[in-house]
């Protein structure tokens, strides 16, 4: 049975909570420019996969264009001509201690067999998690596994990989700290109120 990209977006999108975002649900702003050679429906499918993975732990991803990105936003760029010697085997990298930038090696992702929009969604979710957790760590299973196996790739096409309980806890803990630090910076930037 062949599944089109549009059907895939509908399936993945149906797993994402629909409607208004609850006030207490953590939100993460992710800013991503569309590389010219990625069809929009494939990029939409990748975003739906990433959003669905995070929705599974109660985190809402807010996708924005770079021109509408806040200072707290995570920035994703794409490399279409990745040198062979640059991080061989990696499909992307994040700077977890810097906290805001991800580079996806798009040329490597699309060369993987299978439905690469699904894979791209998993790669993006993996790298966003590195930034949110603020550490370079991996898990024994799921989205944050260091190296996905053939079985993992096959599983992705059936149902998105999930976060381990430890990953979910670390994400939520770091989001609370991240939100507090952004609030402190915002307060420090305000002018004092005259009596």
Reading the helices and strands in chain order gives: HEHEEEEHHHH
Strand order of the largest sheet: 2-1-3-5-4
Q: What's the CATH architecture?
A: 3-Layer(aba) Sandwich
Count of beta strands: 5
Throw out a few tags for this protein.
single chain, 195 residues, alpha/beta, Collagenase (Catalytic Domain), five-stranded mixed beta sheet, 5 strands, globular
How is this structure best described in words?
By secondary structure, the chain is of the alpha/beta class. The chain has a single domain, classed as Collagenase (Catalytic Domain), CATH 3.40.390.10. It has six helices and five strands; from the N terminus they run αβαββββαααα. The chain has helices at residues 5-15, 40-55, 106-110, 116-133, 150-158, 165-189, and strands at 27-32, 60-64, 74-79, 92-94, 101-105. It has a five-stranded mixed sheet. α1 packs parallel to α2 (40-55) and α2 packs across α4. The radius of gyration is 17 Å and the shape is globular. It starts with a helix and ends in a 6-residue tail after the last helix.
């Amino acid at each position: 049975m062949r599944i089109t990209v549009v059907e895939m977006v509908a399936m993945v999108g149906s797993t994402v909570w629909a409607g208004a975002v609850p006030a207490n649900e953590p939100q993460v702003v992710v800013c991503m420019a569309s590389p010219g050679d990625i069809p929009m429906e494939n990029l939409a499918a990748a975003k739906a996969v990433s959003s669905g993975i995070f929705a599974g732990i109660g985190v809402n991803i807010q996708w924005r264009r770079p021109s509408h990105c806040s200072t707290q936003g995570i920035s994703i760029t794409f490399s279409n001509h990745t040198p062979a010697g640059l991080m061989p085997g990696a499909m992307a990298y994040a700077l977890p201690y810097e906290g805001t930038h991800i580079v996806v090696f798009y040329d490597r992702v699309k060369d993987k067999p299978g439905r690469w929009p699904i894979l791209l969604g998993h790669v993006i979710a993996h790298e966003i998690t590195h930034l949110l957790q603020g550490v370079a760590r991996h898990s024994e299973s799921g989205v944050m596994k260091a190296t996905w196996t053939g079985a993992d790739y096959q599983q992705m096409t059936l149902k998105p990989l999930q976060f381990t309980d430890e990953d979910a806890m670390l994400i939520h803990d770091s989001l609370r700290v991240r939100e507090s630090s952004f609030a402190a910076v915002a307060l420090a930037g305000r002018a004092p109120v005259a009596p």
